[in-house]
## 1
Amino acid sequence: MDLTSVAPASSGTQDMGTAIHALAARLYPICRSITGQGVLDTIDILREHIDLDVHRVPSGTKVFDWIVPPEWIVRGASLRDANGQKILDFADHNLHVVNYSTPMKARMSLEELKPHLHTLPDQPHVIPYKTAYYTDAWGFCMRHDQLTTLEDGDYEVFIDTEKVPGHLSYAEHLHRGEVEDEVLLYAHICHPSLANDNCSGLALLACLAESMRSVATHFSYRFVFAPGTIGSLAWLQRNEAGLGRIRHGLVLSCVGDGGGPNYKRSRNGQTMIDRAAACVRCGADDVSPTLHDFIPYGYDERQFCSPGFDLPVGLLQRSAFGTFPQYHTSADDLDFIRPEHLGSSFRLVQDILQILETNWTPLNLSPKGEPQLGRYGLFSPMGGHKTNSDRVMAYLWVLNLADGAHSLLDISERSGMPFTEITAAAKALQTVGLVANLGFSRQ
Ligand code: ZN
C-alpha cells in the first residue's frame, strides 16, 4: 500500500492540482444551499468521478435538536431602480440574493429597501455572502460602492424563491480497505459560488477518492459530502450505530489558496490524526502546519467533536476561515484558488493518510553504541551538505529511538523531523540490516 504512489513527483502534484481546479471550476457556478437543487447538481458532477450513494432526508425530520428545514427553491431575483433599470440580477452572481431568502415582490422606497441591502463598507468592491437559514427574511447582497450610487425613488424588488416540503440531500462514497475501521473525510456542500470555501474541499476529496480507486488500503475510507451543520448532524444520526468504526477523520475546507496550512485538533487533541497532521510538511517550502487547539466554533468538526460523539476528527485548511479578506465574498473566486496550492493540499492530505496507513515500529539491531554509518554507505565522508546532514540526523534519531517502543510517528514527533524524512531513513537502515520492522502501529 502506498497512498502517495498516485502523485509522487512534483509534476504529478501539479497535474493533480490542475484536475482539482478544473473540477472546482465546474462546481463554482452552482447556487448551492443547505437544501435544494444546487446540492443535487453538485453531486451529479462529483458522480462523474466517483460512485456516490445519495441520501435524502425529508423536511421536518427531527435531527437531534434540529429540524430539517423546508427545501429552498430559487428561480431568480432582481432589483430595479425607479427608471426600471435592472441594478442587481441573481443571474449575474448568485451571492446577490441572501441564501434562503423568502420570496418578495414589492415596490418600496430606498429607505424601506436599505435594511435589506447587505454590503461590506470596508471592502466596497466585493459582494458579501449572507444566509437566512432557519428564519424568514429576504435581502440582497451587493458591492458597497454600488450602494452609495443609489438615488431616492421607488425600487422594484423581485425575489422568485419558494420554501416547500422537500429534502435535504447528502452523498457518500466508501473506499473499502482491508479492515472495516474507517477514516472519515468530510467536506461541506452548501455554499454557493465560493471557490475556496468550499468548492476546493469538494473537488479535492472527489479527486482523492478517484485516485484511490485502485489502491489497496488498510483502512476503509468514507467520503461524505453534506450541507454544513444540519447535513453532518443528519449523517451522524443515520450512522450513529456504526460510529465506533471511525478511527480517524478530517474535515476539509479552504484548501485552494496559498496560505497556511492550518490544522485544528480534534476535541481530544491527542488522537493519531492530530499527531499525524503535526508531522507533515506542505509545498516546496516544507511548511509545517500551524496547529490550533479545538474550539467549539468552525466547520462540521464541531458536530463530530460534540461531547455525545467526541470523534477523532480534525479540520485541515490552508488559510483559516474568516482570516482572509476574500472569505465569504465574491472575491473567493476561481482566481483565488490555484492549481499549485490545490496540488500541495492534495499531497498534504495524502501524507497525513499515509502516516495512518504506514506507521511502523523499527528495532535497532545494533543498539550498543552508534553503528559506523560510513561502512553501510549511509554517511558521506565528504559531508557538510544540508540535505546530507538532515538525512544523517534522521538516521541517528531512528537508531536511537528504535528500541521497539517507538513508532516512526513517535520518532518524528520527538525529533521534530518530518515523517517522510524519518520513514526514508528507517527504510534505508532496514535495507542495510541495521533495523528490523516490528510491524505497524495503529496507536
Ligand atoms: Zn463558509
Note: The first strand starts at residue 53 and ends at 58.
## 2
Amino acid sequence: MNLPLRAAIAGTGSYLPEGRLTNDDLSQIVDTSDQWLVERTGIHERRVVGTEESTSTMATQAALRACEDADLDPGELDLIVVATITPDFQFPATACLVQDAIGARRAGAFDIEAACSGFVYGMSIASAMIVSGTMRNVLVLGAETLTRLVNYTDRSSCILFGDGAGAAVFRACEDGRGVMYTDLGADGSQADAMQVAAGGSRRPTTMQTVAARQHLATVDGRRVFRFATEKFAELIQNALSACDLSSDDVKMVVPHQVNQRIIDSALKRLEWPADKCFVNIAKVGNTSAASIPIALDEARRSGCITQGDTVIFVGFGAGLTWGATVVKM
Ligand code: UT7
C-alpha cells in the first residue's frame, strides 16, 4: 500500500562567500565591541560577498550542490523558487537567472518575498505543487546579499546580517518521507518593523532618498525581538499539536538564525534542551531567507539530521511574516 504523496527533501546544498566580517572589524566601523555582540546576539562573524558575486551567483552554487546531492539533472526540475529580499534586480526574478545558470530548461521560475520566513513559504509552495500532482521536482532556495542592503552607520542593525545561499530539492515521494504540515501567517499592520523605505513604487529612488539612506534597511530590533520570541514557541506548539507529536518525536528544530538570545529564550519557554535546536549563527550571522536552508544543509552533512528524523522548521521576519513546516526526512 502506498503512503500519501508528499514532497520529500531529496538533496540540499549551500554556499557561503569567502569574505568574513568579524566583530572586531565591525568595531572599526561603528561603536560596538566583540563582547557586546557575542553576549547580545551570539554572532562572532558573518560572511560577505566579493565584488563579482550577487544573490544569483551564490544561489546558483547552492542549487548545483543540491541537485548533485539529490542526484538530479537540473534539466529535470519543474520549478525553481527563490526566497529573497535582496534580488539581483528589481526585475526579472533572481530565480530566472538561476534557471539559466544551472540549465534547468524545463523549469518555471519565480521569486518570493517573505524575508526571513521565505524559505518556509517556499517549502509550502513546493509541497502544494507536488501533492497536487502538478510537479515532481521543485528546487527551493533562500539566498541573500544583505551586506549590500544594511546601513553601516546604524550599529543596532548592521551587526546582525551576513550573506549566503541554501537550497533544497523537493521530490514527489510515497514512502512516508516529506512535508507533513505547513503553517503560514502574516501581520502587515507591522510592515514598518523592518523595511527599506525607498526604491519601490511608493517612494521611488531620488537623490534625496539616497542622501537620507532610505534605500537601506531599517530594523526595529526590540519589536522584532519580542515578536520572534513569542512566535517561535507558538509555532512549534501548534505544529506539535496539529501533527499529534510530542517533543520526544522531534529530532531537531531548524529555526531562522535570528539571534542566539531569541532562540535560547524560545527554547526555555518550550522547556526544550539546547541540543534539540540547530544553531550556526555564530559563524554565519543572520542571513534572512538563506538562514534555514544553510542550517539545514550543515545539519544534514554533519549528521545531526538523518533519514527518518522528524524536523520542524520555523521562520519569522519582515512583513511581519512567519511560518512552520514539519518534515519527515
Ligand atoms: O531576522 C529578522 C531581523 N532581525 C532582527 O530584527 C533582530 C531582532 N533583534 C535583535 O536581535 C536585538 O534586538 C538587537 C541585537 C538588534 C539589539 O539587542 P537588544 O538587546 O535588544 O538591545 P537594545 O536595542 O535593547 O539596546 C540596548 C542598548 C542600547 O543602549 P542604551 O539605550 O541602553 O544606552 C543600545 O543603544 O545597547 C545599545 N546598542 C549597542 N551597543 C553596542 C545597540 N546596538 C549596539 C551595538 N553595540 N551594536
Note: Residues 180-273+306-328 form a domain with the Peroxisomal Thiolase; Chain A, domain 1 fold (CATH 3.40.47.10).
